[in-house]
Amino acid sequence: MKNFTHNQPTKVIFGVGNANRVGEITAKYGTRCLMVAYHPSKMSKSQKTSCDELKKHLELAGLDVFIYYGAIPNPTTECVDKGIKLAKKCNANVVLAVGGGSVIDAAKVIAFCSTNPSVDWDLFFSQYTIPFALDEPLNIPPLPLIAIPTTSGTGSQVTQAAIITDTATNQKTGIFHSMFFPKVSIVDPKLMVSVPPQITAETGFDAFSHAFESFINRNATPYSEILSLEAIRLIIKWLPEAIKKGSNLEAREGMALADTLAGISLANAGTALPHPLGETIGSLYPHIPHGRSLAVIYPEFMRFACSSTLDKFATIGRLFNPLLNNVQDEIAAEKACGEFDEFLKKIGLWLSLKNLNIQLSDLENISKIMAPITLRLSPRPASEKDLNHILNHAYQR
Ligand code: NAD
Fold it and tell me: Which end of the chain is more exposed for a tag (fewer CB within 10 A), N or C?
């Protein structure tokens, strides 16, 4: 068996009703809490009610609470800078994120930078871009971060990543530091019942992509593979149910667990081609949600990557269709691609770049931007020609 390291420094408190314990949990880390949430205009009534209830629990536990309602979907340097300013002004000593990946990512950087006199975004975007590189303790430790996810998709509650868009260039970039791991994540599936069907599908597919890409990755370990496979199994079972009936708490539990397992796996093994490609599409076309930008390129990516890791594709094919247990790996792997197409159709994410209003003339440009990055990727490096092939097929579908 291969030697490996597994890192999961975030304490996960999982289960229905656990969000009510936020006061007692946060009070262990600080007394002045900056709660980071979406802008009220971006929240549904039930999201606002959840935020109000969490605030009450914090106050009952004796904390002073300051709310930064400034996190936006696909958070920008501008929205993070404003949060840091508020954290300093309030003299916050603990940060609480309540929301999806966008809120948690913004809160990670707010917590990280609030103890420093200034933020060096150039340093972040040039030197913090390698997932496993930075794990030295900082001279000035960041504020402790507690995360309460309200979507089941990004796994951000258990990763060292934050995806931030530079307001100046519109470029969306993943930045990484081991100090971005939250101290505690409270994963309460009850908070996810209000997610509408389309966002449930898009975020659920994001979780699938984390489990899948970490599983086929050369950095995968025996530990991360177990987590990835269980996440995929749960998503195949529960995502269609959560889309069909959002109030199905068992389905929400299954998805919240899958998202968390996939996030832990992602934090250890990393992503493959669809993630950087999806993020580049997201930078050029910010109206396209993250899950859609991934789903649109997946069918071609599956066919591109299949031969490089046949046994793993066979394993996944068999999760989709247990009848494939009776056939050889080559056949099960090939069938995995067709089974996956059917799954995408079932969850309403069978898309084309053309339907998403992406210009055909942009495809070559995307390939050019991406090629230096994708040539290093696992499990199969992609050249500019490969990228053109994948994108053109995704356009025509
Ligand atoms: P999001 O946070 O951007 O939210 C999407 C929409 O869902 C928003 O309109 C929000 O108001 C709504 N929403 C959230 N919770 C809800 C609830 N309980 N009820 C009703 N509506 C709700 O979505 P996301 O997919 O969780 O996060 C996407 C961001 O995370 C992207 O920027 C992506 O690049 C990033 N990301 C981060 C990581 C990581 O490891 N840090 C991994 C993958 C993606």
Answer: N
In the chain, the N- to C-terminal Cα span, in Å, equals: 41
Kindly list the distances between the CA atom of residue 208 and the CA atoms of 67, 213, 236, 255, 347, in Å, as whole numbers in the listed order.
Answer: 32, 8, 9, 10, 12
DSSP 360: G
pLDDT tens column, 324-364: 999 999 999 999 999 999 999 999 999 999 999 999 999 99
> Ligand 1 in contact with 150 (CB < 6 A)?
yes
DSSP string covering 189-237: GGGGTTS-HHHHHHHHHHHHHHHHHHHHSTT--HHHHHHHHHHHHHHHH
Which residues are CB-neighbours of 321 under 8 A, at least 6 positions away?
A: 335, 339
- Rounded distance between C-alpha atoms, residue 208 and residue 231, angstroms: 7
Please list the ranges in the chain whose pLDDT falls under 50: none
Ligand 1 lined by 83 (C-beta under 6 Å): no
Q: Decide if 160 contacts 110 (C-beta within 8 A).
A: no
Cβ atoms within 10 Å, residue 143: 22
Give the closest residue (by CA) to ligand 1 atom 42: 154
Please report the domains of the chain, with CATH numbers, ordered by start residue: 11-191 (3.40.50.1970), 197-396 (1.20.1090.10)
Tell me phi and psi for residue 385, to 5 degrees.
-65, -45
- Distance between CA 395 and CA 397 in Å, rounded? 6
Alpha-carbon span 46 to 139, nearest angstrom: 41
Angle value at C-alpha 232, between 228 and 237, nearest 5 degrees: 150
The pLDDT of residue 134: 67
pLDDT at position 267: 97
Using a pLDDT cut of 70, give the percent of the chain over it: 99
Closest ligand 1 atom to 73 CA: 3
- Residue 164 pairs in a beta bridge with 173
Strand partners, 147: 97, 185
Cα 168 to middle of ligand 1, angstroms: 22
pLDDT at 132: 77
Pocket of ligand 1 contains residue 36 by CB under 6 Å: no
